[in-house]
Amino acid sequence: MLPVLERAWKSPFTTRSDFSRKHTDEIAVAACLGLITVRDDRHSWGRVWRITSTGLLMLENA
Description:
alpha+beta, 3-stranded antiparallel β-sheet, 3 strands, about 50% helix, about 20% strand, globular
């Protein structure tokens, strides 16, 4: 899962990218754990996976 978090931090990727297709399971787990999100703000959703503060904390402690 760390490669997914690193990528979301350094170079956010779209939901339909080749990276997303290759790492489907890891992305699903990271999203369920609140480590990455596609939320743009409190009221809208986007198409780009970005790391959350929780995900960044996990990445820093790895």
